[in-house]
Design brief:
Elements lengths: L1 H16 L1 E3 L15 E10 L5 E6 L2 E5 L9 E7 L1 E9 L5 E3 L6 E4 L4 E12 L4 E7 L2 H11 L1 H6 L2 E3 L7 H9 L5
Parallel strand pairs: 1-4, 2-9, 9-11
Antiparallel strand pairs: 2-5, 3-4, 3-6, 6-7, 6-8, 9-10
């Protein structure tokens, strides 16, 4: 019995070590990426304060309100390249929503800024009903990067890796360079 409890405790500690709180990027510097690492950019648009957003995949992350750029509602951080999905949105300590279908997947590619969409959350705290969407707002994401991270933007390409396909960043890059795509 004690051995079983010990194994469960060790397994729980190992699993909790696999989830990382992120360190969102606050300064406009390209401090370099490790091999197989990229930047992940996600927007959060909500009608009330959220406690946590859980992302799972190659590595699991927990995003909190402290990670969010208060003025523009974006989170930019380094992440290992791989496939990910938004798994859960916690409204507060007691209530959260699991996102179980396939609409929540995205990729992070090495060496680039991977924009994965804006997570739109509309909830009613008292009836525990929520509406969730991962929406492509590429033009707003590009404006955010141009305003807050122009040096990073000049050294890294931005690509959309959320649900669906979008060539907006490639087209915008072609226009900026004066060429045609």
């Amino acid at each position: 019995m004690i051995r079983t409890i010990g194994i469960v405790v060790v397994a729980a500690l190992m699993l909790s070590g696999c989830v990382s709180k992120v360190t969102s990027i606050q300064q406009d510097l390209d401090s370099g990426l490790e091999k197989g690492e990229g930047y992940l950019l996600i927007g959060v648009d909500t009608n009330q304060q959220l406690d946590e957003i859980h992302i799972s995949g190659w590595r699991s992350f927990i995003l909190t309100e402290s990670d969010l750029d208060k003025e523009q509602n974006y989170i930019l951080f380094k992440a290992p390249a791989g496939e990910y999905r938004v798994r859960k949105v916690d409204i507060n300590y007691f209530f959260g929503f699991r996102l179980n279908d396939d609409n929540w997947g995205f990729s992070v590619k090495p060496g680039v800024i991977s924009y994965v969409g804006d997570l739109k959350v509309r909830t009613n705290r008292w009836s525990l009903i929520g509406e969730f969407e991962l929406v492509n707002e590429s033009s707003q994401a590009l404006e955010y990067l141009e305003e807050k991270f122009p040096h990073l933007l000049s050294s890294r390409r931005v690509e959309y890796f959320g649900p669906g396909e979008d060539d907006f960043f490639r087209l915008a890059e072609g226009l900026q360079g004066g060429g045609e795509s």
